[in-house]
Amino acid sequence: MINPAKLEEIAKQITSNMPQGVKNLADTLEGKTKQVLQNKLAEMDFVSREEFDVQSQVLIRTREKLTELEAKVALLEQQLSTETDTE
């Protein structure tokens, strides 16, 4: 298996021996690529992780309330059924 530390060392050696122009080009390319990706992701209308987590918590609370209301409705239906049976 390839040692990750050795790969990192080799990558650092290659980078340190590159001409400055190539390093600048790589940095520029990386910056432009990040910018393009960020712009495209923003256009895709994704929600942030924070917003997702908030909505997940809202959904959990809503489900809990729905379960409570279902139980209350069942109890009221049972009481109503019992009252009509005794009449």
From TrEMBL:
It is found in: Cytoplasm. Required for efficient ubiquinone (coenzyme Q) biosynthesis. UbiK is probably an accessory factor of Ubi enzymes and facilitates ubiquinone biosynthesis by acting as an assembly factor, a targeting factor, or both. Residues 59-86 form a coiled coil. GO terms for biological process: ubiquinone biosynthetic process. The keyword Coiled coil applies. This is Ubiquinone biosynthesis accessory factor UbiK. Keywords: Coiled coil, Cytoplasm, Ubiquinone biosynthesis. Pathway: Cofactor biosynthesis; ubiquinone biosynthesis. It comes from the Bacteria. One of its GO terms (cellular component) is cytosol. Signal peptide: none annotated. Belongs to the UbiK family. It holds the Pfam family BMFP. InterPro entries: UbiK.
